[in-house]
Amino acid sequence: MTNHYVATVPVKFTDSDGKERTRFQRVGAMFRNTRNGDGSEFFSLKLDFPVAVQELVMFPPSSKEPQE
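^ that's the sequence the OP posted. Answer follows.
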């Protein structure tokens, strides 16, 4: 199981055929962590740059993503 997810923002655009589509722009990564004391899990979100958006969408990393 991976310990991180790719953080993205959805970006809508119109393709060359006039169809509205959505692409997902990477903005950071969310990491799964375990507390030392009780073993409970928590997540931390690390942004690549400051963003002013209303929605972040997380995906498991693809095989093309560099492992950190």
